Amino acid sequence: MRFGIFLAPFHTVDEDPTAALDRDMGLVEHLDRLGYDEAWIGEHHSGGYEIIAAPDLFIAAAAERTRQIRLGTGVSSLPYHHPFTNTGRMVQLDHMTKGRVMFGVGPGALVGDAFRMGIDPDNQRRMMNEALDAIVPMLDGEVVSMKTDWFELRDAQMQLPCYSRPRMEMAVACARSPAGALAAGKHGLGMLSIGGTNDEALAAHAANWKLCEDTAKENGKTVNRQNWRVVTLAHVARSREQAKKNVEHGLEQWAQYFRDIATFPIVPADIDNAYEYLTESGMAVIGDPDDAIRHIEKLVEGSGGFGVFLELAHNWADYEATLEHFELMARYVVPHFNRKNDQRRASYNYSHKNREVFVGAAQAAVEHEIERHAKTQSGDD
């Protein structure tokens, strides 16, 4: 299993936005040092909380500050961009990152964004599909001519091929609607499942993945669960009590944003205790590393299996506690799922089982050396 974050980001409207962006960059650098696999960067233009408008710009800067972590648009809202220029930017970024970029796409999550651009929300998923029908072949080097009611392409071809071969990795955002699953299956792309991880949501995600697989087969494509990413909520500390105390910093403000602004009602309007709702419903884990392990195991079982565990970065805790959360995840949770310590445990258990033999042999070796030395000294005399 691979591990990463989905960085919208979320920042309260009373803090300095420049400093907030600096902390977002610092978080990605921290994850890179810890060995995290991925970071997906959001695109939003309104609402005041999710303040990254150009994920490709953020990724370009992050790539210069990191060594190995892969960086994705999470997501590029396709109805907001002409497919030719959007594809060109991503191909350039693929070269600039030496293949570390991933192209996440979606219809756009905030209705307020679409409203400000004069886009009817009812058209966003259609527009996403039309854009994908142009983008995927252009990424493959094909010449595309196509006309819709919102863009036109005339013999459009990228000047550069992708750095990644056969093309950069792509993934389609998918919440409860089947649109993302259908698009991912049609083009043989990965899937980013967002919109909750309680039992009902997991059932919806599993159904969408099945739809993705069926659609891929119908279109002569293949999809792989290793390229399926499930997004959830988590905060861990060294104890459950400390984790609960940590999230008092920002959980309720984050929940209020979802009540007031965000399209997906992660915390419904009638909920007045976000901590209880999120933990009791299974939407989030707030506890210690063992609690996180149990939460992820539940997600794996409920979904049928996926390749990447993504945390929605949320700033529930202050920055230092947030950094410690990710360190605890890297130290204790990631190794559990990647079986990094299996051979260490086998070595430990073997040594413990044979301890008396080894100790006896060591003592005998010491005694023999003492005797040998004594004989040598006796001979010199």
Which architecture of the largest domain does the CATH hierarchy give at level 2? Alpha-Beta Barrel
The stretches of 5 or more residues where confidence is low (pLDDT under 50) are: none
Please write the CATH class name of the largest domain: Alpha Beta
| CA radius of gyration | 25 Å
By DSSP (H or I, 4+ residues per run), the number of helices equals: 14
| CATH level 4 superfamily of the largest domain | Luciferase-like domain
CATH overall fold name of the largest domain: TIM Barrel
Give the end-to-end Cα distance, rounded to a whole number of Å. Answer: 68 Å
Described by the principal axes of the CA atoms, the overall outline is globular
Please estimate the helix content. 40-55%
Order of helices and strands: EHEHEEHEHHEEEHEHEHHHEHEHHH
The tally of structural domains comes to 2
Number of strand elements: 12
